[in-house]
Amino acid sequence: AITVDPGAAGPEIADTMYGVFFEDINRAADGGLYAELVQNRSFEYSTADNRSYTPLTAWTVDGSAKTLDDDGRLNARNRTYLALDGGSSVTNAGYNTGIAVEEGKAYDFSVWARAGAGATLTVALGDAGGELARARRVTARGGWAKYTARLTAARTGTDGRLTVSADRPAALDMVSLIPRDTYKGHGLREDLARRIAALRPGFVRFPGGCLVNTGSMEGYDEASGWQRTRAYQWKDTVGPVEQRATNANFWGYNQSYGLGYYEYFQFAEDVGAMPLPVVPALVTGCGQNRAVDDEALLERHIQDTLDLVEFANGPVTSEWGAKRARMGHPRPFGLTHLAVGNEENLPNEFFARFERFRAALAARYPDITVVSNSGPDDSGPTFDTAWRLNREADVDMVDEHYYNSPQWFLQNNDRYDTYDRNGPKVFLGEYASQGNTFKNALSEAAFMTGLERNADVVKLASYAPLLANEDYVQWRPDLIWFNNRASWNSANYEVQKLFMRNTGDRVVPSSATATPSVSGPITGAVGLSTWATSAAYDDVEVTGADGTRLLADDFSGDASRWTHTGGGSWSVRDGQYVQGDETAENTMVSAGDPAWHDYDLHVKATKKAGK
Ligand code: AHR
């Protein structure tokens, strides 16, 4: 029986409660939400970042050309360029099967080129069937200059190739093809942006995730010249695109930063959501646990964070407000929340640094809510330490993350019922049950009723990850899937949409008796897919009831070995415990399903010293 007390005043539910978390994982940005159709447009792919990369990745040369990184470059950040011999051409293969175009639609080509005055560059778009759009010609003026041309697709194609040829020697960089129609004209792929907008998200958390603060914390340095970085530093991502850095992405590929901080703020505004950026905290998480001890670097990062607030909110007369205005947005973006750090597994080291950021922000921008986090686990010693530190310091809001089984979500509906009503608020920045099936979505819906019931404690919540390009998957499940020509929603998306578009004003207290309880051995698998497990345990072994060895691994080595490739999806199929297998997700079922009960999992693991 369910008893509802309509007269009682439950907690208020903020319109911003349910949002989205965008991270450039699964090629969500380049080849995804960022509408650029040319892959490796600035020839910056590097073997140092990914062993399969060269500056000519995604390009083929007909005739003679070489990539150069010398004083003739376009600018200090855009290092490598292509020197094409006269009479030669270079062709780009795009993403997935190629460049997708739609009959009758216009596509804006641009290129930075250095060629003798009068040289002719020809741009052509074609596929195996011939021409996709009528070729265009531009005439060089001498010296580096930007040339543009508009191509109109004569027919629809998904395997297009873009070819640039030169009649005389020419240096090329920033070869670009972008559909004229992008979401609200702001450079984002329409179908994907529309799917996100249709959720009516209350906030957009960006840009990560693990990609925020993992790896080296150094970045572009005027004095020493270019230095590649893996930590995401917002200043690398703003200004004219040809002057932005590119970066080795934590998820194993190059990111162009064409989708940068300005575009993130713009997108949040376009979908009516509150922007919620995450800045690096100088402690690496995500399996690489290391605290950076460098006072000067810490001070620079803190200053960068203050500058970020100025970029978002400052008047056009301020240094960074003026940069925002020059990019086309004189009005402030209205930043109110900012997170420092993501999933740091060293709570004491993280918190010491977090406090420095928080103090600097409080002194200059006391109205900004500074969000801390509780590390990568949903419970346990690291989580407890992080929460204790956050509570003792009276932090405003703490970011929690967890990727667990559907059973876990069903069993933990009451998770927040016992949270301290006077302590820090919760930002559930990342969560998902491990699969994209209806059952997963249902378990998330059930769990979300618990979030909503506790809306006085849980202030913000976002499913993760948001996007996945089906041909470049690092992590599954994901909310929205796509390739170069189409996109589709998961069942989980429909649940998010249901909650986001029907957010109430206030909780109406209710109670239920005989609520179905769920129990089962599946909880044995919980946590195996988290970074924390890889970092904290050695010799993990999972066996079935009959002693069959389903999974064994020694996570003492390079944790990224499996965190990179596996993602969050673990499931059982044909008696095998498999990782990241979409077809097996149906076996991650509720405890009532007999198929699941065949697998009475037992987990044995040795905790690493000090964890
Ligand atoms: O959402 C995918 C990853 O999961 C995020 O980058 C990280 O924060 C978490 O571990």
TrEMBL record:
The keyword Transport does not apply. It is an enzyme of class 3 (hydrolase). It comes from the Bacteria. GO terms for biological process: L-arabinose metabolic process. It catalyses: Hydrolysis of terminal non-reducing alpha-L-arabinofuranoside residues in alpha-L-arabinosides. GO terms for molecular function: alpha-L-arabinofuranosidase activity. Its EC number is 3.2.1.55. Keywords: Hydrolase, Signal. Belongs to the glycosyl hydrolase 51 family. This is non-reducing end alpha-L-arabinofuranosidase. The chain holds residues 44 to 654 of 831 of the full protein.
